[in-house]
Write a structure and sequence with these properties.
single chain, 614 residues, alpha+beta, D-Maltodextrin-Binding Protein, domain 2, Dipeptide-binding Protein, domain 3, 7-stranded mixed β-sheet, 6-stranded mixed β-sheet
């Protein structure tokens, strides 16, 4: 396909939120906005046809194009087009539907799954998807190094908790509150202790049974037992303990199936090294190039799901994804008609988009922004200090001022869509309580380092610098002094704040990959010892046992108890459940927003911009 100029021209009336999505869909159905221009008015008959091209601006370049060893959504933005998973997500319900596996059967004990693969599916290298290729991916995932798995939060190790061990339950004495010499525990501390002792008693009953069956090549708490090809198009997976959310977990981008040809040929410690820069999957788009900050994808002519493409004749044939860190510059590129759309609309850019009659499509909130509080810090180690920060931070104001309308303050790390009740009496904004707590521990204004990212926008953090500034202002009002630590996102911000070398406050967040509370607990707390200086055998035990409870009241209560433990220990302060949004010019007539960011461009409906048709 021919190379294309960077400049596009487009126009459309402004819509926002659900209204925008509905109107775009209606326009596509009626054909009013989706019809192609008359070829006679464009290039001559002898000219090479210009493919429908979607030019989308993201906030950062992809880190790697190997979804098994990354955790950033900008990488997944690309890999979701190139790769596919055994199980897919229904765009309407968010539930699991067939993907590369056309069906599956679960055994009555929940320990065996048999997947029937689709026949005739081709990888971009021309080879066919068969069970042996799926097994090759599993074997590769099992053998990933610790450094590779440390960079992933939505892959094999996270789904199966492959390297985890069964936690050792604490003793009742370990749950006694810490008090100063000569002082007595408060009534609140004693009540918490009593409740935790009761929880421990219930946990001990369950830990007397054999929690896992069969041998493990990973940790003692690994859910993965074995996988084998039981027919050419049949894969049988066996578990060591029930995982009721397993099918939904298979939709995670890190569980994408790569072509076996890409799994070999690299160095001994990373045979699949080529996938980082040259991904090969079964998806509707094949990877063509990554030139500086622009990724080029082209439609895969032999894509197995031709019905998907035929039913949407206005899908992009070429996708160009560029990187523009600043939300204001992304907005400028759209207004200058250099791109068709951009992601991570901020509350500030929203105003300009409204004035310029651009299309805005919002996603339902399914991510959380939080303030990490590392307990290896002298002051952050004190429960009173962390609670003072919670009372000092005006989360409602933060959500209202710096996030798109409809974003809400977060009382817990679980989005409302998961329907897990919040603990009673979570810390609310109260400056007088914050000051009283600081006086109680004799805090005299010592500086606390506070890290925040530069030159990036995330769906949970569209305006990092201003978010940092507002929280710092809140803390200053109660006497907490901050030492700013700005770190460019591309200079290893996440790695820094999740390391043992950094022991202060930091801003970070998590985007849910599928509808499961365990996804949030596991994703946010996977590195809690380094990120928050936090260890809790009680919490680890609660999470492990809750993970295997089928959906229902018992499971809801178990997750509510986990939230209560987190609220009492306060290793992090949930801040906001943000609504994220994309903006488009009028040549994009439908975009499929997903709370889980599982957005395939083969479902976009568009016409070429006037610039490309002239």
């Amino acid at each position: 396909m021919p190379d294309l100029p960077l400049s596009l021209v487009s126009r459309r009336a402004m819509l926002t939120g659900t209204l925008a999505t509905t109107a775009l869909a209606l326009a596509a159905c009626t054909g009013k906005s989706g019809t192609q221009a008359d070829p006679s008015s464009n290039a001559s008959a002898s000219s090479t046809p210009i493919p429908r091209t979607l030019r989308l601006s993201a906030s950062a370049p992809p880190i790697k194009l190997d979804p098994a060893v990354v955790a950033d959504n900008e990488s997944f933005r690309v890999t979701r087009q190139v790769y596919e998973t055994l199980v897919n997500i229904d765009l309407d319900t968010g539930g699991a539907i067939p993907g590369l596996a056309e069906s599956w059967i679960e055994s009555t004990d929940g320990l065996t799954y048999v997947f029937k693969l689709r026949e005739g599916v081709l990888f971009h290298d021309g080879t066919e998807l068969i069970a042996a290729g799926v097994i090759a991916n599993f074997k590769r995932w099992e053998s990933l190094s610790s450094s590779q798995t440390a960079s992933s939060t939505q892959g094999f190790f996270d789904v199966f908790h492959y390297d985890c061990d069964i936690p050792k339950l604490p003793k009742a004495d370990d749950l006694e509150p810490e008090v100063k010499d000569g002082e007595s525990a408060s009534a609140e501390q004693l009540a918490t202790q009593q409740e935790r002792v009761q929880q421990l008693t219930e946990l001990q009953k369950q830990f007397t049974t054999n929690l896992f069956t069969g041998k493990s090549k990973g940790g003692s708490a690994s859910y993965f037992r074995s996988v084998e090809a039981t027919d050419k198009y049949e894969v049988t997976l066996r578990l060591r303990r029930r995982l009721p959310d397993l099918i939904e977990a298979f939709t995670l981008p890190g569980m994408a199936i790569a072509a076996p040809s890409g799994l070999t040929g690299g160095p001994e410690d990373n045979p699949a090294e080529s996938l980082a820069t040259a991904p090969v999957g079964t998806g509707p788009y094949k990877f063509v190039s990554l030139d500086k900050v622009v990724v080029r994808l082209e439609i895969f002519a032999d894509y197995w799901n031709q019905k998907r493409l035929i039913d949407n004749k206005q899908h992009p044939e070429v996708v160009l994804i560029s990187s523009i860190p600043s939300p204001y510059n992304r907005e400028g590129a759209l207004l200058a008609e250099e791109v068709d759309g951009f992601d991570m609309v901020s509350v500030d850019t929203m105003r300009t988009l409204v004035r310029n009659a651009k299309v805005v499509v919002q996603r339902d909130p399914f991510s959380v922004l939080y303030l990490g509080m590392d307990q290896r810090n002298k002051w952050l180690a004190k429960p009173e200090f962390r609670k003072a920060i919670a009372h000092a931070t005006n989360r409602t104001s933060l959500a209202d001022k710096l996030f798109i309308q409809g974003s809400k303050y977060a009382a817990t790390i679980l989005p409302p869509a998961l329907n897990i009740p919040s603990p009673e009496n979570t810390p609310s904004h109260d400056e007088s309580k914050a000051k009283a707590l600081l006086d109680e521990i004799n805090y005299k204004g010592e500086e606390i380092e506070f890290a925040y990212p530069l030159r990036v926008s995330r769906n949970y953090l569209p305006l990092p610098e201003r978010t940092f500034a507002q929280i710092s202002e809140d803390l200053a009002k109660v006497g907490i002094r901050i030492k700013p630590r700005p770190i460019a996102w591309t200079d290893g911000y996440v790695k820094t704040v999740q390391s043992s070398e950094f022991n202060g406050l930091h801003l970070l967040g998590f985007s849910g990959g599928y509808r499961s509370a365990d996804d949030f607990f596991s994703g946010i707390l996977a590195n809690k010892a380094n990120e928050f200086g936090y260890k809790s055998a009680l919490l680890d035990s609660q999470i492990l046992l809750a993970r295997s409870i089928p959906s229902g009241e018992e499971r809801t209560n178990a997750y509510a108890s986990i939230l209560k433990t987190l609220d009492e220990d306060l290793p992090l302060l949930p801040l906001v459940f943000p609504i994220s949004a994309l903006a488009f010019n009028g040549n994009v007539t439908f975009y499929p927003p997903s709370p889980m960011l599982n957005e395939c461009y083969a479902d976009v409906q568009m016409t070429n911009s006037p610039a490309l048709k002239s």
